[in-house]
Design a protein that fits this description.
mainly alpha, 2 domains, Arc Repressor Mutant, subunit A
């Protein structure tokens, strides 16, 4: 499992750490460039120099946090005994693997305080790595199930960010338990 550790003494590293914390706990629109720069103890010019814009810094932080999420979810799939891909494992095994991955991902996002940065769909791109990973695990028999489960998972994070009990959100994710059609 990758652990991202920026050089926190560099301006770029401090900005990245400030972004992960700020965007993890608050919506993108509520975080200001001045606030990010102040938290990193740099000028706003440094933010623009290193990342081009607030969105550039957000995209950098989001990519890192999402990679950490996917590493954990892929580990949960592997640990469940169902390898990624339609040709591997029974539909029942893949269903268990997907549910396990969703729960591991939810626990990670809650524990690390990444409710907003992971609860929102990816900004500025149509590429949704979470939906893609779920779809690969589910296989080709239910092509829309990956994006639908990703949206439900993000809705659970948004509900927690809005004050819902994490245990209730976890129970809702567990109750989804997708029925994946056989490949035959």
């Amino acid at each position: 499992m990758r652990q991202w550790v920026p050089v926190s003494t560099s301006p770029r590293g401090r900005l990245a750490l400030a972004a992960v914390e700020a965007f993890g706990t608050r919506p993108f629109a509520e975080v200001t460039v001045a606030e990010l720069a102040a938290a990193a103890k740099v000028t706003t010019g440094a933010l623009y120099h290193h990342f081009g814009s607030k969105l550039g810094l957000y995209a950098f932080a989001r990519q890192d946090v999402e990679r950490r999420l996917l590493d954990r979810m892929e580990g949960a799939i592997a640990a469940s005994g169902a390898a990624s891909g339609a040709a591997s494992g029974s539909a029942s095994d893949r269903s268990v693997a997907v549910t396990s991955a969703l729960l591991v991902g939810l626990d990670f996002a809650v524990r690390e305080g990444f409710l907003h940065i992971l609860g929102d769909p990816p900004a500025g791109t149509d590429h949704d790595q979470l939906a893609e990973m779920l779809s690969q695990t589910i296989g080709p028999t239910a092509p829309l199930l990956g994006p639908i489960l990703a949206a439900a998972w993000r809705a659970a994070l948004a509900a927690i960010a809005d004050g819902a009990d994490p245990d209730h959100a976890r129970a809702a994710i567990a109750a989804l338990s997708p029925r994946i059609p056989d490949d035959t």
